[in-house]
Design brief:
about 425 residues; alpha/beta; Aminopeptidase; 2 domains; six-stranded mixed beta sheet; 13 strands; binds zinc ion
């Protein structure tokens, strides 16, 4: 009698733990999976191999299920993006570990530990289960292999994979534009299906060219950022999807004359902007190229625009220079239309000024290394007093953005 009772009691405990652990797996709102960044050349099977997962249709399908939005139609993965592996992350509790594994998985606790030790040996995780208090279990080891995919809302921010600000921003409010300009109004669907990658020159540790006016330092990166935001805002209001490569969480669109300088800009993926020019540019073009691949199938047009001010000799007024990619007729055509649009505007607004702008190709990293049609615009000489007026007055910065927007509209929609 007594024996039976004990037995029952034991059963009760086993059953409860089973229910609890199963519930942990089933009811957890957010199942957590081990993630990894993609390296050049990575594919699904290579990744599975690296993490000691069997190349089975089960693992391949789970991987696809977990990363639906990040796999191209040809099953390619995107560089620098973060992918979930079919490996569940659970809290490691040394006391209940064995009973937990026995209740939820088809394999022995030792096999799970071996799997974890191997991840450490290969340097794929930083802390082992004892110090990190996490245990990793391949989904294929589990009795219950259903995957819960959260709606990834949390991933829009700072995951280092998607640019933070694009059309996904909620309720027509875009924080990137700052308080005064954060609310957008839908004006048209002209640019529906278009994707623009707007790259404001420099930022982070690199201020770009520096000019001086009334005791203030004018930094190229701040003024380029302001014009870039204004242009992007116009494009979004007219249906385009816009990715801003550089992001400053403190500075939205600003109406001040002298824009305070900072080095807080980051890539909008969350990555820091390197002090090394080559690294900085390579990172920027990698980000754009990865997105380009991602949207290639569905986008109507993908255009990248780099906006700079730059400096020449103080005396030299440079007007606006447009550069396009070598042998890129489309880019050249857009550049020419942008130039004539701005020329017309100047002729109307400042007759007799004698506006001079040029269109040419130039050996620049961003022109050579970004895949989409890319334009590079120098808005003027930040050291030239007459050019400075174009940047210091916010109305003028807005005017440039509006004219560039009009030029883009003409480039794509003007009947020839
Ligand atoms: Zn520059």
């Amino acid at each position: 009698m007594l024996k039976l009772k004990k037995h029952r009691y034991y059963y009760f405990i086993l059953l409860t733990t089973f229910v609890i652990f199963n519930n942990i797996l089933l009811c957890q709102k957010n199942q957590e999976f081990l993630t990894t960044k993609i390296k050049p050349g990575d594919g699904i099977t290579l990744l599975l191999q690296r993490f000691n997962l069997e190349i089975s249709s089960f693992n391949i399908n789970k991987f696809k299920e977990l990363n639906q939005k990040k796999i191209s139609s040809k099953e390619e993965l995107f560089l620098h993006h973060i992918y979930k592996l079919p490996i569940l992350t659970l809290d490691y509790d040394p006391i209940n570990f064995e009973s937990m594994i026995e209740s939820i998985s088809n394999v022995s606790p030792q096999k799970v530990l071996d799997f974890n030790n191997n991840l450490i040996e290969k340097g794929l995780i930083k802390k082992d289960y004892k110090s990190g208090k996490k245990i990793y279990i391949p989904l294929s080891f589990l009795k219950n292999q259903t995957v819960k995919i959260d709606d990834e809302k949390t991933e829009e921010f700072n995951t280092g994979e998607e640019l933070i600000y694009d059309l996904k921003e909620k309720k027509g409010e875009f924080k990137i534009f700052g308080e005064k300009y954060s609310r957008l109004t839908k004006k048209s669907s002209t640019f529906k299906g278009f994707i623009f990658y707007l790259v404001s020159g420099h930022g982070g540790p690199d201020p770009g060219a520096i000019g001086f006016k009334d005791g203030y330092e004018l930094h190229e990166d701040e003024y380029a950022y302001d014009v870039t935001l204004r242009l992007g805002r116009n494009l979004i209001e007219n249906g385009a999807k816009v990715f801003f490569l550089v992001y400053d969480k403190n500075d939205g669109i600003r109406d001040e004359k002298f824009l305070t300088t900072s080095s807080k800009e980051i890539f909008s993926t969350g990555d820091t902007i390197s002090i090394y020019q080559k690294e900085r540019l390579a990172k920027g073009s990698d980000i754009i190229n990865a997105l380009y691949e991602k949207y290639k199938k569905n986008a109507k047009e993908q255009i990248s625009i780099n906006i700079h001010l730059d400096s020449r000799e103080t005396k030299q007024k440079i007007d606006i220079f447009f550069y396009h990619q070598d042998n890129d007729k489309k880019g050249e055509n857009i550049a020419n239309i942008l130039l004539t649009t701005i020329k017309d505007k100047y002729d109307k607004n400042q007759p007799g000024r004698g506006y001079k702008g040029t269109v040419s190709t130039r050996n620049l990293f961003m022109l050579k290394n970004t895949i989409p049609t890319t334009l590079y615009i120098e808005l003027g000489n930040i050291q030239n007093e007459r050019d400075q007026i174009r940047f210091i007055e916010y109305n003028n910065r807005q005017a440039i953005a509006n004219w560039l927007f009009e030029g883009l509209k003409k480039s794509f929609f003007q009947k020839k």
